[in-house]
Design a protein that fits this description.
The chain is of the alpha+beta class. The protein contains four helices and three strands. Strand 1 and strand 2 form a beta hairpin. The mean pLDDT is about 85.
Length: about 120
């Protein structure tokens, strides 16, 4: 079992790197300039890949654009990565960055020294 886990993890990382390169170089949509692929979750049979992204603006428009371009991205990926089956791609927004920022703000608020009320 650990062998398969490391295999899917290696494939996920390879797909993440290649997709980031394809999006940056092959797609000419200016909305995709600030897209970051944070993670790729590949199924055990390598037929499906959930691609998690973050983007500063236009999150919904970017997701629609990437999901519409998933066929093209899959074709480009298959030409760059030697696999028996190129996985179907599904793009989702990664909310972990927003949650992390919110937690950081809460921690900062808790760690602030109390204000002097009598001033």
């Amino acid at each position: 079992m650990p062998k398969e886990f490391s295999r899917t993890r290696r494939v996920s990382e390879l797909i993440r790197r290649e997709l980031a390169n394809i999006i940056a170089t092959r797609l000419g949509d200016p909305r995709l300039n600030m897209v970051t692929i944070t993670a790729v979750d590949v199924s055990k049979d390598l037929k499906y890949a959930n691609v998690f992204i973050t983007q500063l603006n236009n999150g919904d428009a970017v997701l629609k654009t990437l999901n519409k371009a998933s066929g093209f991205l899959r074709k480009e990926l298959s030409s760059r990565v030697n696999m028996k089956v190129s996985p179907s791609l599904r793009f989702s927004y990664d909310h972990s960055v927003e949650r992390g920022m919110a937690l950081s703000r809460l921690i900062e608020e808790v760690n602030q020294p109390p204000r002097d009320e009598e001033a």
